[in-house]
Write a structure and sequence with these properties.
Helices cover 27% and strands 21% of the residues. The chain is built from 13 helices and 25 strands. Strands 6, 16, 17, 18, 19, 20, 23 and 24 form an 8-stranded antiparallel β-sheet that branches. Strands 1, 2, 10, 11, 12, 13 and 25 form a 7-stranded mixed β-sheet that branches.
Length: 504
């Protein structure tokens, strides 16, 4: 059987679901969506707390790892990426932030300034309907007292603020781009979703994208175009396997170069993150004798009402603030988790508590992604470049000291817990710097590997190749100042607009 469509979308993640659905809505033709993983119809996917088990799953997580990070003295970091319908939007915490006006204006392209992206955000939110989490733990709700003048509304990266975050949840259940966009589009009859198929490469003839070749050799032709939405690791990897990338790098591993585009895979960056651990009776959720009945009843309560601790996406709130307290403009974000987390490597730990991190809004460090082989079964080398720029380390250190002070000043009432790690071992600047180097990870927001202006045009066409677009977080020249799920969906919406305009 020969498969063909007008458009092929590679990857059913947050951006891919939106771009496919929007192409269908705009009636540009028949669309095939290819997804390497399975369906998202699984109880753990729909249950917010289920992400605890989904991250690291052999079937629903790509389970990438970084190279040894020079800035972290050779440590390697886990890079979970969703591998199912909904992509990473099916395993994330569902936190919803657009970013700041400055983020998009600083990209430097009229098509992507705030006045241009705001309507796309509004259109996405009309369908997704994100809202402030209801039923947040009382200790999370206390965060709204961190800064004077807080109204109880969700915090924003535009100014110093704290409280319960906004999420894309409906009735206590995950509501991803697959739910809001992809499934409703099936009713058109012009959309076909194929799961469990991994893409090897895109066939390029005379600088034009013609067809997709799967790992098993199956070919799927695209009459009008191909949209890469495989994420900041998957999209550049497929481009390079297709012969689009740095000529010397591709030639060295035996790939026939179709178009020399050296910036493919470069500019990789993520939000570096490191946190403080708190523990104490009657504070947050945890494994304690006093909470044992509540945990035993939690599955039944969730099944019956969609409420309770299993309805928690783990990250429930947090703050935005200036690390040094010298400016009203935030440069760090804090994610607050009202659960006791272990700091010695164990998966489960006894006791109650909570956790708060410091995450750089606009890191300066950059890494890169390179292929080690033309074989798609060989994972690429992913160098996140964490803390390569010394200023990133300086800001994280300052942010942890200020976070510690802010949490001490916040009125948590009877829910207050003591800092148990790093606590007294990180009181000096040198000790805190050592702590960051030993503990820093990321917020799982990799971006930038097919950046606008370097790999794709402002309308997301791959430079030098006809009928090929990239639509996912890889096109961000600079990461936005908060969680990247909302901007990824916005990018999908904008991509569909550009493609439709070009097809007209």
């Amino acid at each position: 059987m020969t498969l063909a469509a007008d458009y092929i979308v590679i990857g059913a993640g947050s951006a891919g679901c939106v771009v496919a659905a929007e192409l269908i809505r705009r009636q540009v033709g028949r669309v095939i969506v290819l997804e390497a993983g399975p369906s998202d119809q699984h109880p753990l996917v729909k249950m917010p707390f289920g992400l605890v088990w989904l991250m690291g799953s052999k079937t629903r997580d790509w389970r990438f790892s970084s190279t040894q990070q020079a800035g972290l003295e050779g440590r390697q970091l886990k890079i979970p990426r969703g591998r199912m319908l909904g992509g990473s939007g099916s395993i994330n915490s569902m936190v919803w932030f657009r970013g700041t006006r400055r983020d998009f204006n600083d990209w430097g392209y009229p098509e992507w300034d705030w006045s241009s992206v705001e309507p796309a955000f509004q259109a996405v939110e009309e369908k997704l309907r994100p809202h402030q989490l209801s039923g947040a733990h009382p200790v999370t709700q206390k965060l709204s007292a961190m800064f004077s003048g807080n109204s109880g509304a969700a915090p924003t990266p535009e100014y110093e603020s704290a409280g319960v975050f906004n999420f894309n949840l409906h009735n206590g259940r995950r509501w991803s781009a697959a739910d809001a966009f992809l499934r409703p589009a099936l009713g058109s009859g012009n959309l076909q979703i194929i799961t469990g198929v991994e893409v090897d490469r895109i066939d390029i003839e005379t600088h034009r994208a013609r067809r997709v070749i799967l790992v098993d050799g199956t070919e799927i032709s695209a009459h009008k175009g191909i949209i890469l939405s495989a994420g900041s690791i998957g999209s550049p990897s497929i481009l390079m396997r297709s012969g689009i990338g740095d000529r010397s790098d591709l030639s060295a591993i035996g790939i026939d170069v179709k178009h020399d585009l050296p910036q493919v895979g470069r500019n990789l960056h993520d939000h570096p993150s490191v946190g403080l651990y708190f523990a104490g009776p009657n504070s947050g959720y945890g494994l304690t004798l006093g909470q044992s009945l509540a945990w035993a009843a939690a599955p039944f309560r969730y099944a019956m009402t969609g409420k309770g601790r299993l309805a928690s996406p783990t990250v429930e709130g947090g703050a935005f603030f200036n690390a040094r307290g010298t400016d009203a403009v935030p440069d760090v974000q804090s994610h607050f988790i009202p659960f006791k987390l272990g700091w010695t490597g164990q998966r489960y730990t006894y006791g109650a508590g909570y956790f708060a991190d410091v995450c750089l809004c606009r890191p300066k460090s950059r890494g890169e992604l390179r292929l080690l082989s033309a074989d798609p079964r060989v994972a690429p080398a992913v160098d996140l470049g964490i803390l390569q720029d010394p200023s990133d380390l300086d800001t994280l250190v300052a942010g942890l000291f200020r976070l510690r002070k802010l949490l001490a000043q916040t009125d948590f009432g009877s829910y207050r817990a003591a800092e148990v790690f790093p606590a007294e071992t990180a009181q000096s600047d040198d000790a805190m710097r050592r702590y960051v180097i030993e503990r820093c990870a990321t917020a799982y927001h990799p971006v930038g590997t097919a950046a606008i202006g370097a790999v794709v045009s402002p309308s997301l066409n791959v430079m030098g190749i006809e009928n090929l677009w990239v639509a996912d977080a890889s096109v961000m020249p600079q990461v936005t100042s908060a969680n990247t799920n909302a901007p990824s969906m916005m990018i999908g919406w904008k991509a569909a607009t550009f493609i439709t305009q070009e097809a007209a």
